[in-house]
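Could you please review the protein record set out just below?
***
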Amino acid sequence: MGWIAEGEPKELSTHEQLVKLFEEYIEDSEKFEEKSVKQAAARARKALTNITKLAKVRRAEIQDKKNSM
């Protein structure tokens, strides 16, 4: 049902995956901004793409739960 980040154990909830991806994004974004590491820019953009995909999954989960209440 949910999208799993590369290399992530499947037992992580969608919320936990989002938090982990955001932490990775912050780390790579800071490396790019502070140290001008070009590869970190690519990783930060990839993390943002994955966050977008996973946010859509999480939004649907929340909507489904709300509708079933």
About this structure: The chain has two helices and no strands. The radius of gyration is 14 Å. The longest helix spans residues 38-67.
